[in-house]
Each structure stands twice: as C-alpha cells, then as structure tokens.
Design goal:
The protein contains 6 helices and 9 strands. By secondary structure, the chain is an alpha/beta fold. The protein has a single domain (4-234), classed as Rossmann fold (3-Layer(aba) Sandwich), CATH 3.40.50. Strands 2-1-3-4-9-8-7-5-6 form a 9-stranded mixed beta sheet, with helices on both faces.
C-alpha cells in the first residue's frame, strides 16, 4: 500500500496515537515536516491518504505552504482519497472545501466532553462512541461546515467539533493525544497559555487523572479512526 502522508506543522504536534493505529493496520506513513522546511507535494500521486495535524498558526495567515496544502486537499477530495485533519488540519479541510474559519467565541483549552450533533446517512458508527468521553482541545478559531458536510460533534464552547464530507473527515478536537504529548504541549506553549477560565484549564487540571483520560480518549479515537479508514476500502 502507498503511504499516508502526515503533514506536521510544529515539532510537538505529530500524529501521536494515530501513528499507532496506522501501524496496527499495516498502513505505511510518511511525515511531511513543514516545520523543517519540507515542501508540500504538488499532487497526491503516490499517497493512499492525507493527514493534517495542528499548529498555532491560522489557516487565514499568508503562508505559502497553507495555499499549497489547501490545493492538495481539494485535489485529494475530488479524487476520493481519504483526508483527515486535526484542529488546524480540520480547519484546512473546511477552508479548502468552501467553509470559513473564524474566531471561536472563546479559547477552548483542556479536557471537555463533546456530544453528538448529527448522524451520517447510511452509517451507524456514531453509536459506537461514548459521549461521556472528554476530548482534548486547544484552539482559538473554529471552522464552518462546507456545503454538503454532515456535522458530527459539538462541545459546550464550540459548535462545530467535527464533520464528514465524502472521504474527508475534519476534527476540531485532538483525538490523537498521548500522555507525553500533553506534557510536551504544556511546555512548548507555556508562554502563550491564557489564564484559567471556564473554557481554559490550568496545566494542573490538564494533567490530573491523565492516564484515565488518555485511555478513554483512545477508545473514542479508535471509533473515529476506524470510520475514516473505511475510506481506504472504498477506493481499493
């Protein structure tokens, strides 16, 4: 099988748990390290799927690689190649497919539950999700739904936490987190972390009961990633 291309925008925001899931399914992966100056491919030939990770930048920033990634997402989507985005990556998918990305009413950082906001016609995989699960969040912007997209999740602080459109799956929340990643983000972004509030947890709270939270998140992620991986079957 051709590799999944994973686009990393900052050193600490790699594929995390998704890498484990891809390995378990014997799907090869290749990291495209935008943070190290790697170039965005001009086409999707040679890739079985595309994954876009997070980052502190905005999809509305005037950065050359953002335009290149948007074009690549559109190309992959039109060809039916599976595309997956986490946070910034989800916002890239939204913008590439005609949605808008704007400021969220509040900054949302920490562990907060999501709830189902819709159903996907012809599928029932949302029924396999425990909506008591807290997901990890770290964002100040939010995406709108492109035309034809089916909403998936919402949280108390953000109306759109996920959508699916064809083989493209956009997530605002971070289901890829591992324990070490939470710790690394708190260190990497310590100077930019807002003061605690109803929508922003303290570092101490984000690390509280971390093993249980990560285990629950991975059970949630298993359902999400399994649903996305079905797109590989549809194109083979």
């Amino acid at each position: 099988m051709q590799p999944v291309l994973i686009f990393r925008h900052v050193p600490c925001e790699g594929p995390g748990y998704l890498a484990e899931v891809l390995d378990a399914n014997k799907i090869p992966q290749q990291i495209i390290s935008i943070d190290e100056g790697m170039q965005v491919p001009s086409h999707v030939n040679g890739a079985s799927g595309l994954v876009f990770m997070g980052g502190p930048m905005s999809v509305n920033d005037n950065l050359p690689w953002i335009q290149d990634e948007l074009a690549l997402i559109r190309n992959a989507h039109h060809k039916g190649i599976p595309v997956l985005g986490h946070c910034l990556g989800g916002q890239l998918i939204s913008k590439a497919l005609g949605g808008m990305v704007t400021r969220n009413p509040v900054t949302e950082i920490g562990w907060f539950p999501v709830e189902c906001s819709g159903t996907i016609p012809g599928t029932g995989w949302l029924q396999d999700i425990s909506f008591a699960t807290e997901c990890f969040h770290w964002h100040g912007e939010t995406f709108a739904l492109p035309a034809g997209a089916h909403p998936l999740f919402k949280s108390r602080f953000c109306q759109n936490q996920g959508f699916v459109l064809g083989n493209s799956l956009a997530l605002q929340c971070h289901v890829e987190m591992q324990k070490g990643m939470v710790q690394a983000w708190l260190e990497y972004y310590k100077d930019d972390l807002p003061a605690p509030s109803s929508s922003v947890q303290s570092p101490e709270e984000m690390l509280r009961d971390i093993d249980r939270r990560i285990a629950s998140l991975h059970a949630f992620a298993d359902v999400i990633y399994s649903a996305w991986l079905k797109g590989f079957q549809r194109i083979t």
